[in-house]
Design goal:
12 helices; alpha/beta; 11% strand; Rossmann fold
Amino acid sequence: MNKTFVQDLGLAAASFFLCLIVIVAGSKLYARKLGIRDPSFRYESKINMWQSEPAIGFINKPHFSGFSFGCVHVQTNEWGFRGSGHTLLTKREGVVRIVSMGDSVMWGVGVNKEDSIPGLLEKDLNNDSLYEVINASVVGYSSYQELLYLQNYVLPLNPDIVLINYCKNDILPTEDAFKNARAIHIQYLNHLLGRPDLAFTPEEKAGIKRLIHIFGSAKHIWNTWDALQTREPNLFHLARKVLVEIPVAEMAELSRESGVRLIYIFIPPRSDRTEYASVADKLQKLLVQRGAEFLDLQSALVPSKNELARPMWMNVSGFGWIRPRELREILILRSMRTVHNRDIYFDSVHPTKKGNAIIAEHIYHYLTETSTVKATDMPK
């Protein structure tokens, strides 16, 4: 064998292994610089941030600190509200207190506090005057849980304005490790059956009993729910009425009685919007009838054709073959940041940083243009 060829081959092999060493060492250093603390890139619902609350199902743990999606800081204060700042129960004089509540969309899944809808809104508002924006959202809440949370945790804060988002999956709670969420929904449905003011028909009462059975027996509540849409459409629509429309109407009435401006924010899903638009139309009429307000962002959040053609942000497991681990984490994080800066939606329902900025801007303009409208001034 030619001696020169052997030497060249040796040099090539040495260069290859040297490059590997540089890549491994560089990846480790760069990953450390990026602050990747959650290499699994989990959703917030997977990081044990809830604690049991039998009356509501679950709430955020106070003084919780963790990481999701690589390096998104998930932090709560002493009341379980997002952020580290102290929240006074007594509102400061001259401050307009806005409490945002709802589910993972309002919480700000996949983004840090300052890039969530409430975080961006507070920044915009405080360019003009003194506002306080509290992010009291809880990832995974249903509309009924939001009603309970409004009663027990939000109204005692004496807010001037309450913002709630409506998401297409608000009809059911996220399954919790404490098994509380199912129990409170069963209790709620049984309570509805005993309310004469609702005047349910015999068919509706039978349907509510069927829903109670599903909550009590279904192994996977969401799988069972998905099957209802095609197999039992009448029961599906009844569930919308009792699990969404009635709680939303009661939140509107409760806020009006408390002198609080309740503003529902309609944030549509990424695609398949027909059903969402139909439900939103019903809820908007209910809200107006009961003296609440709404901001419909369906036309403001329309993904481009290119965005709709792309898969939803990424499949983390698709990067599983990449080695070393730190290089894989860097590539996932870069992909995630590209989506946040380029697209409106992060997945099927959650807005990106860009989407949150659009939403916050519309809320800002709505609030500043209607700042003199109070809940007691709204038509009955």
